[in-house]
Predict the structure.
Amino acid sequence: MPNPSASPTLRCRDCPVKSCAAAILNAEELDGLSENSREAEFSKGEILVHEGSFNSSIIYLKSGLVKEFTKGSNSKEQIIQIIKKHSYLGLPSLFGDRINRYSYAALTDCNVCYIDIAKFNGLVKQNGEFAYEILVSVSKDNLHNFQRFVNQSQKKNYGRVADAILYFSRNIFESSVFDLPFTRREFADFVGVSRESVTRVLTGFRQEGILGIAGRKIFIQKEEVLERISRNG
DNA sequence: CCATTAATTTAGT
DNA sequence: ACTAAATTAATGG
């Protein structure tokens, strides 16, 4: 028996990792979805979508971590957000635009489903509950992101880095020990601080005994202090 | 396939 | 900007 990846594609109705929205769909709708989606794998570092490209499908992230980013006018990269598994990529530029406004790159190996955009739009138009779930996720992202950006813009380097560490710990990994999915460069692009400052702040935190750091491995030793730094900027 | 080495990327100052 | 370390790609067996 050759290769298992040649096995028949998993039908959407059998998918064990359906999104909240897809969980709403009935059997026929799911079968319709199956006919309009393709699975694909990406390995760490690969680009899933390039900013500026046509928007021909929506991507559902079955597993892995993805960064959503864009280039500012100074052509510096800005990471908008980290996207966890079981959510869609490309929703911000789905409605009312044919162009992807952001790029997406795999931070870890990923499994995704490409969903034809016409099919996806069709479901949104036909099924109010499906559309509602999509709206919920778009709105939540919006709130979270704006809150992060507002906080960020009001803080200095130490506060921004502390914020990001807490963000990873609480929102992404739900643990006080984790592997940063970022290079220092990416970390800098995420928090809007220079690469040098990121390492300065991190070694500062380590020297104060707030964090343990070994390469990309982080463990939080004094969460209260991090919170205080985050609050006071 | 594995082991070396060369090249590129990353981290820290 | 520069150096050292680490990661990745290329080469040869």
The CA atoms of residues 14 and 60 of chain A lie 15 Å apart. The longest helix of chain A spans residues 128-153. Residues 215 of chain A lie near DNA strand C (CB under 10 Å from a C1').
